Structures are given as structure tokens and as C-alpha cells.
Amino acid sequence: MIYNSPAGFTRGSSNIVELVKKDGKGNRNLGRRIITVIYKLDGIKGFFRGIFASLLLYVPFSMLFWSTYYFYLYNVKSFVNWYTIKEGNRAEKDKCFTTSQCISAGLAGATAALLTNPLEMYRLRVQVQRMGYKRTAEEMWKVEGPRCLWKGLTPRLLSKAISATLWMGLYETAKKLSIKDEYQYLVAW
């Protein structure tokens, strides 16, 4: 439907891409020109298009991420503890904790991305196609059917898994480094 066709993707009342192309300025100050066109077409509301769709996506994503992160962390830690005790390396058990956190974060990011991908596709269409919420949903379903909800799943899974692994690894490392020794026992690792 939209491959190599920005006009097909931005089927709103006025096509922002076409309006920016018509001004004849090439790629100079492209960001400023796009902002100006959005403001002229929609006013200040144009910059907040799809904010409720974003909330509809990011609240469940965050809830799913954090709940599955701790679920995976518990299971990964249990496996590491079982494996190190089985192998007789009881001292190695705590050295794998940051790795366990990173693995758990990657799995949680992928799980949350998988379960919220339909909401991501809806959010993108609301923001880019410049139609109302109901009309966007009807148009998506009419033109593409149920496939529209799972487009872009593979790159989103990879993106969320990799980014969650990196930022949770950095967060947990910073947390470990910033806790004073006398408060270590208070932190749930």
C-alpha cells in the first residue's frame, strides 16, 4: 500500500509532503519548512496529533515491559543458580547477574513489542495519515485487513529487544555503582 509512496501513506485532507515539495526550496531547512506547513494546516493542534494513540500504546507497553522483565529476571536467575550449583561453581552465581538482567530486558522488550505492535501501527497511522481515530481504524481495516496490525513486527521486535538490553544494562550498572555500601542490603537485586 505505501511502499515508495509517501502520498499513499499520508492520505489526509492535505498532503504535507506535496506542500513541502511545491515550495521549490529542495532540502534546505527541511525541518523548519515541515513545521511551518503543519502549523499552517492544523495550527498548534497539528503538533499533538495522535497523542491519545501514543498513550494508548506506551502505557500498556510500559506495563508489559516491567511485569515481564521481572518475570524473566526471576526465571533467568533461577536457571543460572541451578546451573552454577549443578556445575559446582557456587561463587560464580552472583557474577552473572548483570548478564541475567540484560537477557531479561531483551526478552521483556521483545514480548512487550510483540503484544503492542497493533497499537503501534494504529498510532503511526493516526499521526501520519491525518485522519480521525475512528476513520483511521476503518481505513486500515478496509484497505489491508488484519495484516495491517502486524506490519513492521520484525524490525520493531529487534529494535525494542536491543534498546531494552542496552538501557537496562546501563541502568542496572549505574544503580550498582551509585549505591553506598551501607545501603546495599536495602536494594532488591
Note the main sheet: none
Helix content: 55-70%
Indicate the overall shape: elongated
Number of DSSP helical runs: 7
Average per-residue pLDDT, rounded, comes to 82
Output the radius of gyration: 23 Å
SS content category: mainly alpha
Strand content: under 5%
Domain count: 2
Number of strands: 0
GO molecular function, one term: branched-chain amino acid transmembrane transporter activity
InterPro entries: MCP_dom_sf, MCP_transmembrane, SLC25A44
Pfam families: Mito_carr (PF00153)
Subcellular location: Membrane
What report would you give on this structure?
- The chain crosses the membrane at residues 51-72.
- It is a multi-pass membrane protein.
- It is found in: Membrane.
- Keywords: Membrane, Transmembrane, Transmembrane helix, Transport.
- This is Mitochondrial carrier protein.
- It is a single chain.
- This protein is mainly alpha-helical.
- The chain folds into 2 domains: 1-48, no CATH class; 51-186, no CATH class.
- It contains 7 helices and no strands.
- It has helices at 6-9, 16-22, 30-42, 51-87, 97-129, 133-144, 153-178.
- Helix 2 packs across helix 3 (30-42), helix 4 runs antiparallel to helix 5 (97-129) and helix 5 (97-129) packs across helix 6.
- The chain is elongated.
- The termini are far apart.
